[in-house]
Amino acid sequence: MKDFKKSRFVSEVSDITMNMYHQGWDERNGGNISYLIDEEDIRKYFRKDKYIKDIELGFTADPICRNKYYLVTGTGKYFKNIKKDPLTNLGLIKIDSNGHTAHLLWGYIGGGKMTSEFPAHLMSHAERLKVNPKNRVIMHTHPTYTICMGACLPTDEILFTRTLWKTNTEAVVVFPEGVGVLPCMICGTEEIGRATAEKMKSHRLVTWTNHGIYGAGESIDEAFGLIETVEKTAIIYMLTLDHAVNVIPDEVIIGLAKLWNLKMMPGIIEEK
Ligand code: 2HA
Ligand code: ZN
């Protein structure tokens, strides 16, 4: 049997969390990632399931998430420490068939458990899987300029998306379905989890005002790429705030969407 610590899953999460830490997005224990792993991949590392302990979820997992395996960052753990000690800072769990319990197969040594944002993660996995059965990753982080931009604009996802699209020509191409926006809410709760998952039905990106952002994707690269494109655009917007004389014309945004055959979020740009 191969050692799960040396798997591509652990190395992908270790590398991206170090990268995100160096972007300055994940101070202290900020940020969390969950990565759905297919059973055929699990079997390369674990002949059969052997559980270290059971962890109560505190909410009911959607049936689509049950009997599935997730690699999840630990609560209170720091992104900067994952690469040097993945076994303490990450855990591999299987959601039980009753939807109330996580079985720990690997990691969380020293008594850890899943991120406090696990309700938002698992509920988002459920909604993204229903839209795209290939979705594997939910990523949450605190990108500085994205938070600044959310603080400067009303909590309106039409306005937020339009502002991003009109700032950077990459924006409409990378997220034509737009960005979901939630107001400032109490994090770590089932309520914010449900609100995030509701937005995930139609968006791969959801911002939490005054807090951060969620990205979803088929891979770590897709989820990270979405978030870094929002953050890059927010940097441009915040640095040019009240100074910009050139913003992207509506015709260019429509032209980009046509060129790349993209379905744009409705209501953002009026087609003339
Ligand atoms: O886990 O980012 O939202 C730390 C956080 C909470
Ligand atoms: Zn957070």
Give keywords:
alpha+beta; 272 residues; binds Dihydroxyacetone; 9 strands; 9-stranded mixed β-sheet; binds zinc ion; 17% strand
How does this structure look, described?
By secondary structure, the protein is an alpha+beta fold. About 40% of the residues lie in helices and about 15% in strands. It is built from eleven helices and nine strands. It has helices at about 10-20, 40, 80, 85-90, 120-130, 145-150, 155-165, 170-175, 190-200, 220-240, 250-260; strands at about 30-35, 55, 70-75, 90-95, 100-105, 135-140, 180, 205-210, 210-215. It has a nine-stranded mixed β-sheet, with helices on both faces. A hairpin with a 3-residue loop joins strand 8 and strand 9 (about 210-215). Helix 6 (about 145-150) packs across helix 10. The longest helix is centred in the C-terminal third of the chain and has 21 residues, at about 220-240. The radius of gyration is 19 Å and the shape is elongated. The N and C termini lie far apart (about 60 Å). The model has no long low-confidence stretch (mean pLDDT about 100). The structure holds Dihydroxyacetone and zinc ion.
The end-to-end span amounts to: 61 Å
Shape: elongated
Beta strand count: 9
Write out the distinct hetero groups bound to the structure.
Answer: Dihydroxyacetone, zinc ion
For the largest sheet, list the strands in their spatial order.
Answer: 2-5-4-3-1-6-9-8-7
Query: Which structural category do the helix and sheet elements fall into?
Result: alpha+beta
Order of helices and strands: HEHEEHHEEHEHHHEHEEHH
- Tell me the major beta sheet: 9 strands, mixed
- Strand fraction band? 15-25%
